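protein under study:
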Amino acid sequence: MRAAALALALAAAPAPGLAQMGNPGFMAPDTRFDAQGMPEPGQTNPNDILFAQLAAEGGMAEVALSELAEGRAQAEAVTAFAARMIEDHTAANERLAGLAEAADIPLPEALNAEHKAIRGTLEGLEGAAFDIAYMRGQVVDHQKAATLMVWEIADGQEAGLQGFASETLPVILRHLEEARAIVADLSAQPEIAAVSPETIGIAPSATAAGWEGEGVTSPGDETANPAAPSPPPPAGAGAAPADEPAGEGATPAEAETAPAE
C-alpha cells in the first residue's frame, strides 16, 4: 500500500528533467509501422525499446556513481546506501539485459553525457560536499526512474518488460524514500548547511532543508514548479492519470515538451 501511495504521488507531481531521461533516437532507424504507434509484426513496440534503453542507462549510472560513493562517502549512511544501490541495481541490470536480449533490443554500453558530467562533478568533491551532491543526485535519478517504470507499466506491450517494471517500481520507491531521508538528515548537520549549493552544482533556488533543486518535488507536493508538464498517464500502475496527458502513447520525452495548462 505504501508503494502504491508513493507511485500515485509521483504520478501527480511534476516530473523532474524528463527530457534528460533519454532520447527516442535510440530507436532503430529501420523501425517501420503498420499504423500510428503500432510496429509491424515481428518488431518490438517502440515504447518497450525506449523503456529498456532508458532503464539500462539509468541502472548503469546507478552502479557507476554508487561505486564511486562507496569508496569516497564520509557519512556511514551514505556509504551503506551506495552499497545497497550497487547490489540492487546490479541485479536489476542483469535481469533487464536478459529481457532485452530476448526481445532483440540493443542496450547502451556507456554512460550518457549527463551522467558522465555528474560523475566528473562528484570526482572533484570530497567530504560533506560529496555526500550531499551524491545523495541529491540519487533523489533526482530515482524519481526519474519511478516515472519511467510507471510509464512502461501503462504503455508497454512486452510482457517481460512490463513485469520487470512492475516488480522494480516498489524497489525504486523504497530507494527514493531512503535517499530523501538521508538528504534530510545530512542537511540538518552544520557542516552540510555550510556547503555552498553552487559548489556541488545545485541551483541557488534549491531549498536549504531539502537540497532538492528546481523541479524536484517531494511525493504529493503538487505546488512546486506548477508550470512543469505532467508525466505520462500511469493508468497501468493503479494511479489516477494526469489531468492533461501529452497524448496517447506519449513517451517521457514527448511528455516533457507538451504544453502546460
